[in-house]
Structures are given as structure tokens and as C-alpha cells.
Automatic annotation (TrEMBL), chains A, B:
<keyword id="KW-0418">Kinase</keyword>
<dbReference type="GO" id="GO:0005829">
    <property type="term" value="C:cytosol"/>
</dbReference>
<protein>
    <submittedName>
        <fullName>cAMP-binding proteins-catabolite gene activator and regulatory subunit of cAMP-dependent protein kinases</fullName>
    </submittedName>
</protein>
<dbReference type="InterPro" id="IPR014710">
    <property type="entry name" value="RmlC-like_jellyroll"/>
</dbReference>
<keyword id="KW-0238">DNA-binding</keyword>
<dbReference type="InterPro" id="IPR012318">
    <property type="entry name" value="HTH_CRP"/>
</dbReference>
<keyword id="KW-0805">Transcription regulation</keyword>
<dbReference type="GO" id="GO:0003677">
    <property type="term" value="F:DNA binding"/>
</dbReference>
<feature type="domain" description="HTH crp-type">
    <location>
        <begin position="150"/>
        <end position="228"/>
    </location>
</feature>
<dbReference type="GO" id="GO:0016301">
    <property type="term" value="F:kinase activity"/>
</dbReference>
<dbReference type="InterPro" id="IPR000595">
    <property type="entry name" value="cNMP-bd_dom"/>
</dbReference>
<dbReference type="InterPro" id="IPR036390">
    <property type="entry name" value="WH_DNA-bd_sf"/>
</dbReference>
<dbReference type="InterPro" id="IPR036388">
    <property type="entry name" value="WH-like_DNA-bd_sf"/>
</dbReference>
<feature type="domain" description="Cyclic nucleotide-binding">
    <location>
        <begin position="19"/>
        <end position="136"/>
    </location>
</feature>
<dbReference type="InterPro" id="IPR050397">
    <property type="entry name" value="Env_Response_Regulators"/>
</dbReference>
<dbReference type="Pfam" id="PF00027">
    <property type="entry name" value="cNMP_binding"/>
</dbReference>
<keyword id="KW-0804">Transcription</keyword>
DNA sequence: CGGCGTTTTGATCCACATCAAGCGGTGTGG
DNA sequence: CCACACCGCTTGATGTGGATCAAAACGCCG
């Protein structure tokens, strides 16, 4: 059972990045009325592919994943949802992907029907949603390059660089040196995202560690001394987050 | 030099599927004023990654592709644009992908600035664009499964099934037997889409042919006696286009 | 301490990449 | 009208990155 809590929109950490980013006071008040927070434990399924979903919403904290499972059990993650990312598709009443909490996750959920009404009536929300969807589409396409053409080492580097950049972007002065981050994913979850096996992920992470590109502190904590050095391992010439 | 021609929107073959699908007479008239047709020969580049693009638009006929190139020459296609698909990103003045005409292509182009004004002012266009973008996002995510987890044979089957379904959807009575289609892609282009080499593509296509899943008529013409049989080769349990 | 989930490490295997010809169709210039 | 080159495709021989199979080590918690 998800646990509930509450918070004013104006105090919300993702206020200026989420689907509500461009809302004015009035619109925010409307959202406030239809929102509910839900909390999920690490590993918990938020929804199964094919399930009806009565809500859409934003990730407030933690990391959720979207994934597909083939009948023989092969799994591919198709989205990594970090704070401010949007979950659910307006106009469709079920997910076509499994949604899972990779770490403890808090969602800000809006009931579908009133949210869709808002979407029709307030251009700010619709505009922002279009923009976010276009960004996700670019991200998905960038990931297609990773899955289609990159080596195992390049894939790991790409994942680390993308998480590092995303985390850094929350600061107002994005660092490029001595970035420290807590990997929100197990080796297995990484392998599902990267289209590899967990053994290969483990080997390549340790190789990058030995090569000094990253410094492991335990299993999950990663220190990136120089982001440019990591970028050089991604195989991309010029960077995009 | 792209060749020009003209056509009334009401007579347009993609009228009810493209970004203009929900437009009324008035809105159509506005679009009519800012549109220009352009024609590209097979193999011609429509735009290079990083190029400024002064227009957005729809594919009217033919097949265009979006692709990324790594500095060492590895290529991954990230989008296959069939008639009615939208090209370009509102709010961004350059492509981040290479856009190429795979066959002879006709585009219906809108100058960026007036189109963006239309987006703000007429909800029908914005709504439809959001919907199309969400569809593309789903398609991109489905393709991530193909690239991350499927075998060479499954990839080929997935491509053929997806093109077959897309072609069939233009008819009002979608067939599931004896589908005939002209592959709009060379073996090399297919390999770029599928994350394989052209040799592997060639071998697997001929294998599917030998196994009776498809029947080749020349190099490009494919006869699919039974779409369900082909689906069974994609590795997916239940189908989505 | 003992059990369980995560991660590492090692040995072997295989699907697909790579390298290398050869083949039909088509266009071009002598 | 033929010689030749070029392009898209096929086919074969060989190599290899990552999968698979197997087991041990490392927390972590009860």
C-alpha cells in the first residue's frame, strides 16, 4: 500500500521543471486540488504493462523505470524516470510498459480525467507537456544509438555521463570535476537499461575503475574526477545530455 | 535543388493523418498560406545534423530517415518517416539528426515562425502534434527493445512486420494475408536501422525467405503470405504496430 | 553465526562482425 | 555494341565481444 503525505506546490522541489513548470498561481491552485502524493518502496511495481492506470503524474523524488518484457523473459528498460519526469500518457487509460520503483519513489499523481480537462483548458500545461515529450523523444533516440551501436564500455560510460549530467543540472553551478553520485540502479537494472548482461556490466564498471575514469566507493557510490574524461569514453564526439 | 509543385489541402492524401488532421476549414486555409512542397531524390540529404532548419513539415510521399553518425563513422537510424509523419521540432531551429530521403520524397513544409504561431493559437494543431509525438515516443521505445534485446532474425521480422502493418493501415480493410510491399530501404539502410551489418541483414532475409516466412520477388519486393507467421518470428508475444 | 541477495571473477561458447570474393544489373564512354 | 566500372547484393571463411554457465566473495540482516 502506498503511503500518503502532503506538500504545497510552491514548496515543491520540482516546481520549475515538471509539467507544472509554467503554471501561474491560479493554475497551480487547480492542480493542487487534484493531486495526491504516493510513495513506493525500492523494487515495488508501480504498474504492470497492460494495467489500467487511473492517474498520471510526476516523479518528485527517487528513480522509477519503464521496461518491456518479452514472453521468454528478456527485459529491456525503455525509460529512466528521474525527479520532475512525467509518468503516464494522456488519452490512454493503461500503461503499455512496466513501471517500477528502482529506489524509494514519491509520485505526485493527478487523476486522469481532471488532468486531461486541464490539458484542454490551460495552454501552459499542454505546452510544457509537449516540450517534455519532445525532450523524451530525443532522449529515447539518443539511447537507440547506445543500444544499436555502442560497445559495452561505451554504454556504461554513456549511462554514467547521462546520470551525472542530469544530477549536476539540479545545481545552479553545474560541476564538471569531482562529481559524486549514488547509483540508483543495481547491476542488474543497469544491464536491463544497457542491453547487456549483469556480468558484462560488472566487468566494464570495474575496468573503468581500474583505468581511473571513475573511482568506486563501495558498490554504488561513484566519484567522477573528470567528466570530460568520461565523455571521451562514450564514443560521442560532441556532447548532449 | 528541390522541385516544387502544388496541391489543395483538401485533396491531400495525408489530410486525415498528419499534423493537420483535426484542422477545420479556417485553420486549413491558414496552413495553406504558409506551406510549400519540396521534392527530394532518393539518397539526397534533406538536412545534416547541426544544420539550421527553416521549416518543419510532413512527409507527403516517400520515405525519409533520421540518423545519427558517430565520429568514427558508426551509424544508427533513429527514425523511419513514412507519409503523414512530422519532420522537425518546434522551438528548435536546427536538427540534431541527419535527415535523408531514402526514396523519392515529397515534403509539405511550413515556415517555422508562422507554424509556431499557429501552434500557440490553434489548439487543434498543438493537440494533434502532442498526440503524434507521444506515438513516436512509443515507437522509439518499442525500437529500443529491438535494438537492445532481439536477435538478428527477430529484428528483420520486426522491421518487415512494422512496415507491413503501417502500409496496411492505409487501406480501410487491413489485410493479414498476402501482403505485398516494396521495401523502401537498401540492405545497408536496413542494417543502419536494425543495428546490424548489411551482410547479416542479407543472410537473415534470405533465411526467412528459405523458411517460407516471406517470399522475395527480386531484391526489394516482398510477399508476406501470413502476417501472423511473421509476427511469430518477431519474438513479441502480443502485437503492437 | 548462517542465509540470502548482490556483485565479482573465471572458463567456455556462439551470434554476429569482419574480411574477402564473386555476381547480376545498369549506365557510360570508346 | 561491347568493355568496363559501379552499385547493391549475396556468399563464404574466420575472428571476437559479449553471452552463458559456474562458483566464489561480499555485505547485510535476523
Amino acid at each position: 500500500m502506498p503511503h500518503r503525505l502532503n506538500l504545497r506546490c510552491t514548496d515543491c522541489g520540482i516546481r520549475h521543471r515538471a509539467v507544472c513548470a509554467r503554471c501561474d498561481e491560479t493554475e497551480l491552485a487547480q492542480l493542487e486540488q487534484i493531486k495526491v502524493y504516493r510513495r513506493y518502496e525500492a523494487g515495488q511495481k508501480i504498474a504492470w504493462a497492460g494495467d489500467p492506470m487511473s492517474f498520471v503524474g510526476s516523479v518528485v523524488s527517487g528513480v522509477a523505470t519503464l521496461s518491456q518484457t518479452m514472453e521468454d523473459g528478456r527485459i529491456q528498460m525503455v525509460g529512466l524516470l528521474l525527479p520532475s519526469d512525467f509518468i503516464g500518457r494522456p488519452g490512454r487509460d493503461s500503461t503499455i510498459y512496466d513501471v517500477t520503483a528502482a529506489s524509494a519513489v514519491t509520485l505526485c499523481c493527478f487523476r486522469r480525467a481532471p488532468f486531461e480537462r486541464l490539458l484542454r483548458d490551460t495552454p501552459h500545461v499542454a505546452e510544457r507537456l509537449l516540450e517534455m515529450t519532445l525532450d523524451e523523444l530525443d532522449a529515447a533516440r539518443d539511447w537507440m544509438l547506445v543500444l544499436g551501436r555502442k560497445t559495452a564500455r561505451e554504454r556504461i560510460a554513456s549511462l554514467l555521463a547521462s546520470v551525472a549530467r542530469r544530477e549536476a543540472s539540479f545545481d545552479m553551478a553545474p560541476k564538471t570535476h569531482d562529481i559524486r553520485l549514488e547509483l540508483p540502479l543495481t547491476r542488474e537494472a543497469m544491464s536491463e537499461y544497457l542491453g547487456l548482461t549483469l556480468e558484462t556490466v560488472s566487468r566494464q564498471i570495474n575496468q573503468l575503475n581500474r583505468d581511473g575514469v571513475i573511482e568506486l566507493d563501495g558498490k554504488r557510490r561513484v566519484h567522477i574526477p573528470d567528466l570530460a574524461r568520461l565523455d571521451a569514453e562514450t564514443g560521442d564526439g560532441s556532447m548532449r545530455a
